[in-house]
Amino acid sequence: MEWANDKSKGGVLAHLERLETQMSRSCKNLEDPPRETAESDLGTKIHKLRCLRDKLRAEVKQRQARIKASTANAEPDQTLEISEQEAVGGKEENMKAILQAYRFTGLSGKRTSRGVCVCISTAFEGNLLDSYFVDLVIQKPLRIHHHSVPVFIPLEEISAKYLQTNIQHFLFCLCEYLNAYAGRKYQADQLQRDFAAFLAGPLQRNSLCNLLSFTYKVEPQGRSFPFCARLLYKDLTTTLPTDVTITYQGTDASSTSWEEQRASHENLFFTKPLHQVFTSFARNGERLDMSLVS
Amino acid sequence: MDARRAEVRALEAEIAALRRACEEPRTPGEDTSRARKSLQEIHQSDSGEWAASKDLRGHLGHLESELLFLSTLTGINIINYSMKTEDLTSTENTEKSIKKVLQRHRLSGNCHMITFQLEFQILEIQNKESLSSVITDLNIIMEPTEYSELSEFVSRAEDRRDLLMFFRSLHFFVEWCEYRKCTFEHFKEKYSEAVRLPEGAASSCMVVQSPRQPGFELVIVWRIQIDEEGKVLPKLDLLTKVPQQALELDKNRVLETAPLGFRALLGVLGIEAALESLITSLCVGENH
């Protein structure tokens, strides 16, 4: 019978219900007639109920068979997936590697449950320096959940200007400030580490490394430190100073050569990174030594 | 009689139960979750791997979205990357607990229409106090090579081994190129009679000619330069081409001072408005 093949639940059930109503109606009709026919009617009822039960059993079996079939269908996929897994795994490795490689562009990051955590990498003259992160919550308004940006970097100012309107600009700007700070810090660290012999005492600096003050000499052997330097980096996005003041505090009478030196030093500090200025001092000192020897 | 009635009752009960089994509403996920459960039962031994594979699919999608975010943010699309390491630690280094590793990186990708291939080396030195990472070599190959402004920039980046500046400046350079192309195309479309792009929209010059006075030409040269610090700046210049007669008639030396005037106009109005006013002033009278 075609209705047995009707897969739609409504179709089969509806038919069964109709059958049932027919039967209950026919049963009702059977209740009134005389007792003599009751037994034979009961027989008919049983027969009809048996039919109904059989149909329902078939229906339930069909449902179960359908489930079994769908699970059976999944089986061959599984073998396909295992061999595919290697290809997929290889692709995953490649993508993970590329994500790591983004740090060389200055900005990398990953998605978080809240939004995104952006990592800003810094470098100076080929030296890879510290990274900083900014954890952003993607909401309206966009906000910073937490970060590792040093307190003396004007993060609030930059985010107030750009965060809501242009996240790319916000990050690039922050990148600029952080890279410049990292570069200035690197120069100051290098000076202290490699040229301590040229300095009278430690280099004086602020946390932002944009105000440096030190007393120095240009030859490692000399006992006096004739020059006093004050470097100010007003533009926080640069790694070279905007203001350089060199004063000569020696007691030497012949002032013209000192004045020349002082002026040339000022120019050097304006144009070259701090530690490179001292490298050239050291090299000049070596040249002088050589001339003494020969 | 009683037995039959009992049978009737039993049948009715069974029918009711079967009906319930048929009517049971199936929640949408129920079939699939049942399937998954039974599948897991069947493949107990391999379920670990198989489940990992399923997770991998979702994980891949996650990685893809992260990559899309980064390429949109930086403007740089990295397609391939690989790294090899070489241990350069000598026995002397090991005694002093110094570790030296040389990393060879290969990276390729594109920034809009410009493709790049980079090969660089990073020397990592780890001693007791600190870890230093220095780029010791940088090689950059870029295509297309018709952007002459770029070749100088690339050499500078290679000399300085400044990888970060390379990527940042490249991104801004390409953005400016796209903006220039869009602007030129916009004006060509709006003033098709007056504006010519003799070298195409991707080039650096736009010629404005009054249709009524074809002898007069204004050539706007828009170059995009990358300075020493890696800052990308547009540089616009105005060149005038006029017939000899007009030059002689020009008592107020308007034409001589035009380039300077244009620079001033740029400062006041910005690029688009300055170009627009230049074109409309030449084509005045066209539209009424």
UniProtKB/TrEMBL annotation, chain A:
Matches recorded under InterPro entries: CENP-O
Locations listed in the record: Chromosome, Centromere; Nucleus
Pfam families reported in the protein's UniProt record: CENP-O
Coiled-coil residue windows: 46-73
Keyword line: Centromere, Chromosome, Coiled coil, Nucleus
GO CC terms of this entry: Mis6-Sim4 complex; nucleus
PANTHER family (UniProt xref): CENTROMERE PROTEIN O, INNER KINETOCHORE SUBUNIT MAL2
Full protein name: Centromere protein O
Species the sequence originates in: Acinonyx jubatus
Top-level taxonomy: Eukaryota, Metazoa, Chordata, Craniata, Vertebrata
Gene symbol of the encoding locus: CENPO
Automatic annotation (TrEMBL), chain B:
Domain of life the protein comes from: Eukaryota
Stretch list, region Disordered: 21-46
InterPro entries from the UniProt entry: CENP-P (IPR027801)
UniProt-recorded name of the protein: Centromere protein P isoform X1
Species of provenance: Acinonyx jubatus
Gene, per the UniProt record: CENPP
